[in-house]
Amino acid sequence: MRIDDLINHTSEWLKGSGPYSNIVISSRVRLARNLNSIPFPHRLNKKQGQEVIDAVRTAVEKVDFLKGSLFIDMQQLDALDKQFLIERHLMSYEHARPDNYRALVLEKSEIISIMINEEDHLRIQVMQSGFSLFEAWSIMNRIDDVLSEHLDFAFLSEWGYLTSCPTNTGTGLRGSVMLHLPALVMSRQINRVLSAIAKLSFTTRGLYGEGTEASGNFFQVSNQVALGHKEEEIISNINALIKQVIEQEEQMRQHLFTHQRAILEDKIWRSFGILKSAFIISSQETIDLLSMLRLGVDLDIIKDIDRSTINRLFLITQPAHLQKIENKRLSSHERDVKRAEIIRKTLEKIS
Q: How far apart are CA 56 and CA 124, in angstroms?
């Protein structure tokens, strides 16, 4: 498997399947781990960084889930490949920094990825389509058990697993859910919901995680603190919170459909019309319009297109994906033209 092979591959989290996939795009569980007796990544020298990479690589070969995975030396990637992996949610912006002792393990179905020497020695993530936190945690738990047999993780009985960021100390676990909440945004109820989430010690981020703002009505909700909480407790708490948000979004969708249907359908069909006819379109406008198109599909207003196709459009119209598809660098204008072409061809059979 090569990075270029991923272009035509449908990521697990984009399949549009799983529980409540009309509202929940994906569920992710991330685990932070550090090796004992080796400085944390921000203090590593090149020799120590390579020592971590070699140790993790050996341990990964023992994990059945990771058989046939791609092991990537980040030094071998150019800026376009790094952006491509960020757009697929397989690594962070932080991991794309040009340090000479970073690596990435990428499992072939894109359910599992491991960032080596990001903020911690290991940042392991498992992603599933739909509202599937417990399923993602089950996979993660088995991976962690096997890696623990082959790696000596930094751990203190009174603190738990030691991490670079104090909020991750303890279990090192962060669960997050990507939500599509257009009805709450349209009804101007979203700030009330986000405020309630923050008061419960959860954090909300944008489409690409930390440091990004919400766009296209997409919001990532995750726990802020791992210390003092058991893994099952963290997952259960997030699960309970997300259920409440789902319920509010469902109720608001029904309210808009029942009481403001003309306004709702106008927004959806206008979005469809622009997407189907535009010859130049920006990345941000695409995300906003596809968000409304997805809502139209979820409410059965727009037929003859499935959710997974729209999810895929969200991905392949991103800047790095467009350039990988064309196999060359594109200017901003060229990307806007190519993006519009791909969308038109995808939607041309829909009336």
A: 11
Q: Measuring CA to CA, how many Å separate 203 from each of 142, 190, 304?
A: 27, 14, 36
Instruction: Tell me the per-residue pLDDT of 105-132, one tens digit each, with 9 for 90 and over.
Output: 999 889 999 999 999 999 999 999 999 9
Q: State how far the alpha carbon of 146 is from the alpha carbons of 38, 61, 64, 170, 301, in Å.
A: 20, 10, 9, 19, 47
What pLDDT was estimated at residue 351?
64
Give the end of a domain, one of 252, 276, 298.
252
Reported confidence tier of residue 166, pLDDT bands at 50, 70, 90: confident
Tokens, residue 119:
């903020």
Same domain, 226 and 328: no
Where a domain ends, among 198, 225, 252? 252
Q: Calculate Rg over the CA atoms of the chain.
A: 21
Locate 197 and state its tokens: 């989430």
How far is CA 73 from each of CA 104, 147, 153, 276, 292, rounded to the nearest angstrom?
Answer: 7, 20, 22, 40, 39
Residue with tokens 């060229």: 334
Please check the confidence at residue 138 and state whether its pLDDT lies above 90.
yes
How far apart are the C-alpha atoms of 212 and 93, rounded to whole Å? 10
d(CA 175, CA 173): 7
335 and 301 both lie in a single domain = yes
Q: Is 42 exposed, middle or buried (0-12, 13-18, 19+ CB in 10 A)?
A: exposed
- Looking at the structure, do residues 230 and 269 belong to the same domain, yes or no? no
- Distance, in Å, from the CA atom of 23 to the CA atom of 248, rounded to the nearest integer, reads 11
Domain enclosing residue 330, as ranges: 261-347
3-state class of 40 per DSSP?
coil
Which three-class secondary structure state does DSSP give residue 84?
A: helix
Query: Whole-model pTM?
Result: 0.91
How many CA atoms lie within 13 Å of 161's alpha carbon, on the beta-carbon side? 26
pLDDT of residue 12 exceeding 80, the answer is no
Q: Please indicate, yes or no, whether residues 84 and 8 belong to a single structural domain of this protein.
A: yes
Report residue 57 as tokens. 């690589």
